[in-house]
Amino acid sequence: MSTLPPEGEGERLQKVLARAGYGSRRACDELVAEGRVTVNGVPAEPGRRVAPGRDLVAVDGAPVGILPDHVVYLLNKPAGVITTASDPEGRPTVLGLVPPEPRVFPVGRLDVPTEGLLLMTNDGQLAQLLAHPSHGVEKEYLAELEGDPTPAALRRLREGVEIEPGVVTAPARVARRAPGVVRIVIHEGRYRQVRRMCAAVGFPVRRLVRTRIGPLVDPHLPPGQYRRLDAGEVRALAEAAAAGPGRPAAKGRRARRAAASPVPAAGR
Ligand code: URA
Question: What does CATH list as the number for 11-64?
């Protein structure tokens, strides 16, 4: 077939899947045999070879990053750092907190005073998948408010709030964690959404920390530090995005660790 790399070119699919965190080559063979792997949308045959950078590989519909030089960083953004490549006002940017090579870019944004988890990658396909509103990976925030929210305010946050004329937020999960502190889980990514939601119900935000992106949490990552995600984490992220809006995070080691320690380093 013309879509196959010429004999001997490209990499064996099992090798690519194993590198992307799908288990041993044998386990990856089984995934192929079960018809769960597609290449460019077509179920893959055993022995299929793929060309990194050209072929789109997916498992159960979740895209698999197949370039060996792709990186995904999880950064704990401190307050005061801007989520763009450069700032005319000369403020520090998130690019200054990660290595210059390979060149990565932020996935979505946190506004300047907001702290917490931000993804950065050079994988355009993954970034596109995560950024697309129809995928709506859950994002969790810890917000310190001006005042202790009333039950009515919490209910409004949960049900949806008009944050600008004609724009009502989707239902959110909201829990009061302590006097004046709420945990908010949303799957939309509107401009300054959490701040505008809280202000709209009469309790403006004093401090805002993003503590989870889909299945990813890391209460031990210090502010200003980043770490590279491993293949299993990238895979869990892609799966969460492919599963669609508001799907629960994977129940992984890190998610359990977060449950045991709900306040992140950045949120203390
Ligand atoms: N909501 C906000 O208000 N700010 C952010 O940076 C992210 C979500």
Answer: 3.10.290.10
Q: Which CATH class is domain 139-213?
A: alpha beta
Per-residue pLDDT of the chain (268 residues; tens, 9 = 90+): 435 555 567 888 888 888 777 777 788 888 999 999 999 999 999 889 998 767 888 888 877 765 667 899 999 999 999 998 888 888 899 999 999 888 999 999 999 999 999 999 998 888 888 887 677 799 999 999 999 999 999 999 999 999 999 999 999 999 999 999 999 999 998 999 999 999 999 999 999 999 999 999 999 999 999 999 988 898 899 888 888 765 544 443 333 333 333 333 333 3
The answer to whether 100 and 226 have CB atoms below 8 angstroms apart is: no
114 lines ligand 1 (CB under 6 A): yes
Q: Which two tokens stand for residue 12?
A: 């064996």
Tell me if domain 72-134+215-260 and domain 139-213 are identical in fold. yes
What atom in ligand 1 is closest to the CA of residue 141?
8
Q: Is the dihedral of CA 162, 167, 172, 177 positive or negative?
A: negative
Could you give the residue numbers annotated as active site? Answer: 111
Ligand 1 atom nearest to 139, measured from its CA: 8
| Ligand 1, pocket-test mutation among 109, 110, 157, 201, most atoms within 8 A of CB | 110
What is the distance between the alpha carbons of residues 209 and 109, in angstroms, rounded to a whole number? 13
Q: Which of 171, 228, 180 is nearest to 208 (CA)?
A: 180
Beta bridge partners of 253: none
CA 141 to ligand 1 center in whole angstroms: 9
